[in-house]
Amino acid sequence: MTRSLCVYCGSSPGNNPAHMALATALGKELAASQIRLVYGGGGLGLMGATARATHEGGGDVLGIIPNFLQEAERTYTDVKHVFVEDMHQRKIMMFDESDGFIVLPGGIGTLEEVVEVLSWLRLNLHEKPVVFLSDTGFWDDFLRVFEQIVAAGFAPKSALDDMLSATSPQQAIAMVEDRIANPLKRKPLGFEGGVRELS
Question: Which of 36, 9, 38 has its CA nearest to residue 21?
Answer without folding.
Answer: 9
